[in-house]
Design brief:
By secondary structure, the protein is of the alpha/beta class. 39% of the residues lie in helices and 27% in strands.
């Protein structure tokens, strides 16, 4: 009897990222992977969410507002945030009555007001019980690290709005550090560099696409590609042949900021934990860590082992899946 019920009711896990939201549904898999963006036609009137809403950025007329409710890793716009969470749960297509437990990954520095907003949105979407887990903890679980054990590990999650650095052991976060420099800032650095060096204006979407397709900061053969934009002086379309060497220059400051905060965090560690981190190294997660060559670039500068799991973009969501599957074991890492 119980087995039948447990199949009818669905447990879900949500990685509520600043850039992307991923929804995992037990026994179905990752059913939603969409930008954390919502578009309104008028007050309270949702026009689109996810990819569709993101495409409207900078292209719409005055009547339409496009919002990223989770700027900088916190819920900057509560009403839009709640609406977005509800919409994504709806996208997972689970009838309201059959929704059971929801585990949601939230930023480490989440305030009690933000916690309430996340929990209430999930409850208003029909969740019976809502549990929260910090994103680096979920990421570490997703990577397959024994977070409940005594060996400390360091997670560096480079997302859209923030980079979260956390040292974890015994099911808790010992030291953490969040900076508002991550993937979005990389896009902006590319835009600035291209403008200063080539007098060419490119948009945010193009900068992000170039970063994903050609971005490389490690050693290896350079890729050649064309920069297409508008000449900053004449305003006319213009294109220039460049190589991926460009990213090493353009992203130098952003990467330095990330590296400095890793070093500061290491500095704050008690010696026993530092030695664990030195042995196990740094684990990179999040979409921003997919920048080609970033692992070797970091390894060279911080002089520690650096690894990047194959599922970097899905680590937090994968963590929520493992938590739901081993609920009793992972209870100590959850909070409400
Ligand atoms: P969040 O957890 O904040 O939602 P994600 O972990 O989804 O963020 O990462 C989003 C960031 O990852 C974006 O800034 C995006 O540009 C960047 N990103 C995604 N894929 C790649 C890639 N292949 N190379 C470089 N950056 C990438
Ligand atoms: Mg994330």
């Amino acid at each position: 009897m119980f087995r039948i019920f447990s199949r009818i009711f669905s447990n879900i896990g949500i990685d509520l990222g600043t850039a992307n939201t991923i929804v995992y549904v037990a026994e179905k898999g990752f059913v939603v992977n969409e930008p954390s963006v919502i578009a309104y036609k008028s007050k309270g009137n949702v026009l689109a969410i996810g990819k569709e809403a993101k495409e409207m950025f900078g292209k719409t007329h005055k009547g339409i507002t496009v919002i990223r409710p989770l700027a900088d890793g916190v819920i900057a716009d509560f009403v839009a945030g709640e609406e977005m969470i509800r919409s994504f749960i709806r996208l997972a297509e689970i009838p309201r009555f059959f929704l059971n437990d929801i585990v949601i990954g939230v930023p480490t520095g989440v305030t009690s007001v933000e916690k309430r907003a996340v929990i209430e949105s999930a409850e208003s979407a029909g969740a019976r019980r809502v549990y929260l887990v910090t994103e680096p903890m979920a990421a570490a679980i997703g990577v397959g690290i024994n977070v409940l054990g005594s060996n400390a590990c360091m997670i560096v999650d480079i997302g859209g709005g923030t980079t979260d650095i956390a040292v974890i052991n015994f099911g808790g976060i010992v030291v953490d550090n969040t900076i508002r420099v991550a993937g979005d800032e990389m896009n902006e650095a590319i835009i600035r560099y291209v403008k200063n060096k080539y007098n060419l204006r490119i948009g945010e979407t193009s900068a992000e696409k170039l970063k994903m397709d050609f971005g490389m900061v490690g050693d290896g053969p350079e890729l050649e590609f064309q920069l297409k934009g508008l000449d900053a002086q004449t305003g006319l379309p213009h294109q220039i042949d460049v190589t991926s060497e460009l990213f090493k220059e353009a992203l130098k400051d952003v990467l330095n900021t990330i590296i400095n905060s890793i070093l500061t965090t290491l500095d704050k560690l008690p010696p026993e934990l530092a030695s664990d981190v030195i042995d196990r190294g740094i684990i990179l997660t999040g979409g921003g860590s997919l920048l080609k060559g970033l692992d070797s670039y970091l390894r060279e500068i911080v002089n520690l082992p650096v690894s990047r799991p194959g599922n970097a973009l899905y680590c937090v969501a994968e963590g929520t899946r493992k938590i739901l599957e081993n609920f009793e074991m992972f209870k100590p890492v959850l909070f409400t």
